[in-house]
From TrEMBL:
<keyword id="KW-0812">Transmembrane</keyword>
<dbReference type="GO" id="GO:0004746">
    <property type="term" value="F:riboflavin synthase activity"/>
</dbReference>
<dbReference type="Pfam" id="PF00677">
    <property type="entry name" value="Lum_binding"/>
</dbReference>
<feature type="transmembrane region" description="Helical">
    <location>
        <begin position="24"/>
        <end position="45"/>
    </location>
</feature>
<dbReference type="InterPro" id="IPR023366">
    <property type="entry name" value="ATP_synth_asu-like_sf"/>
</dbReference>
<comment type="pathway">
    <text>Cofactor biosynthesis; riboflavin biosynthesis; riboflavin from 2-hydroxy-3-oxobutyl phosphate and 5-amino-6-(D-ribitylamino)uracil: step 2/2.</text>
</comment>
<dbReference type="InterPro" id="IPR001783">
    <property type="entry name" value="Lumazine-bd"/>
</dbReference>
<comment type="function">
    <text>Catalyzes the dismutation of two molecules of 6,7-dimethyl-8-ribityllumazine, resulting in the formation of riboflavin and 5-amino-6-(D-ribitylamino)uracil.</text>
</comment>
<keyword id="KW-0808">Transferase</keyword>
<keyword id="KW-0472">Membrane</keyword>
<keyword id="KW-0686">Riboflavin biosynthesis</keyword>
<keyword id="KW-0677">Repeat</keyword>
<dbReference type="InterPro" id="IPR026017">
    <property type="entry name" value="Lumazine-bd_dom"/>
</dbReference>
<dbReference type="GO" id="GO:0009231">
    <property type="term" value="P:riboflavin biosynthetic process"/>
</dbReference>
<feature type="domain" description="Lumazine-binding">
    <location>
        <begin position="68"/>
        <end position="173"/>
    </location>
</feature>
<feature type="domain" description="Lumazine-binding">
    <location>
        <begin position="174"/>
        <end position="272"/>
    </location>
</feature>
<dbReference type="InterPro" id="IPR017938">
    <property type="entry name" value="Riboflavin_synthase-like_b-brl"/>
</dbReference>
Length: 297
């Protein structure tokens, strides 16, 4: 058996009385597919309920603005300062220490407000302070552990993107801004006016990367070219236009990049590991048991 938890607003969007008839794959993907690609659900539910879902989803999104990132970098900002162990007042009024990053920007500040989300090198961060030319964000311990932000230097360029409304135009892919870890550039080679780059990363991250799939590298939506699982690297190609708009081409061999695996890949890997493989292993064990019973007769 398996258990899923559906929030109150999700329950208002789907026909709950039919949940025992839905394909389990639909349940695995429901929470992410609902936000950005309703058409993919049609394979799992009939047309009548698909219409109901479309109407209720449109009504919900009309009342509640939902945001994501697309991996289309809007501008290159600049590190103003990175303050580690800064004295600050915590939520309960007590004194504590934290890390703050201040970034110089232009486009990212348009329509910005305190509490808004801005992608900085692929990391979804909350604006805690705004000026005419800068914004400041707090960096949690988890962010520092998953990224290379501890190595940022004053004046270093950064990929920036404002959050986009779910359901709007998306020229990249669904990027959460939840970085899985880092990779290291191990190869750079021009091919015509394009640039091929290989990035070495951990097997855990590589498990969710497939050729011609999506990958967010420093917040840039890119198409995976090749994957070498034996040597633990993947590659992508930057066209001439993109090279001028992002920070990746200027990084040297050995340079770090933030990586976010396509969310569908993460859910697929998790579904296989937690649901399919255990069932296959149980089935194989049962077959072995039956073979022994037959052999002993």
């Amino acid at each position: 058996t398996y258990t899923v938890c559906i929030s109150q607003h999700s329950a208002s969007l789907i026909p709950i009385h039919r949940i025992n008839r839905m394909n389990w794959n639909y349940l695995v993907c429901f929470s992410i597919l609902l936000g950005f690609n309703l058409s993919m659900l049609d394979a799992f539910i009939d047309g009548r309920h698909s219409t109901i879902l479309t109407e209720r989803r449109s009504s919900y999104l009309g009342r509640h603005k939902q945001h994501m990132f697309t991996g289309i970098v809007e501008e290159m900002g600049e590190v103003v300062s990175l303050e580690v162990d800064k004295e600050m007042t915590l939520w309960d009024g007590t004194a504590g220490k934290g890390t703050e990053l201040t970034v110089k920007a232009t486009k990212a500040l348009e329509d910005a407000y305190l509490g808004c989300s801005i992608s900085v090198n692929g990391v979804c961060l909350t604006a805690t302070s705004l000026t005419a030319t800068t914004f400041t964000v707090g960096l949690a311990p988890e962010t520092m552990a998953r990224t290379y932000f501890a190595d940022l230097k004053d004046g270093e360029p950064l990929n920036l993107e404002r959050a986009s409304e779910v359901g709007g135009r998306n020229s990249g892919h669904f990027v959460q801004g939840h970085v899985d870890g880092t990779g290291t550039i191990i190869y750079k080679q021009p091919v015509g006016d394009s640039l091929v780059i290989r990035v070495k990363t951990s097997p855990d991250i590589l498990a969710g990367i497939v050729p011609k799939g999506f990958i967010a590298v420093d917040g840039t939506s890119l198409t995976v070219v090749d994957v070498n699982r034996k040597e633990s690297w993947f590659s992508f190609m930057l066209v001439e236009y993109t090279q001028k708009k992002i920070i990746i081409p200027d990084k040297p061999i050995g340079g770090k990049v933030n990586l976010e695996v396509d969310v569908l890949g993460k859910y697929s890997v998790n579904a296989i590991a937690t649901t399919i493989l255990p069932r296959i292993e149980a089935l194989e064990a049962r077959i072995v048991e039956l073979e022994k019973m037959i052999a002993n007769k």
